[in-house]
Amino acid sequence: MEQIVEKKLKVTLVKSSIGRPEKQRKVLRGMGLVKLNKTVLLGDTPEIRGMAKKVAHLVVVEEVEVN
Which domains does the chain have, with CATH numbers? Predict the structure, then answer.
């Protein structure tokens, strides 16, 4: 039986959203990142990649394969 490998993005908030534009804060909230150093696993979709790109200066993104 074949194992299905699903790609996920591991996104960690490494810089504060204080003093950032409201649009960037909304993107972070939409990704579930509210507190500093919080990590979330999100599906690897074009929408999530676009959100991560908008706040790339505030987050660290890693690709992870989940069985």
Answer: 6-66 (3.30.1390.20)
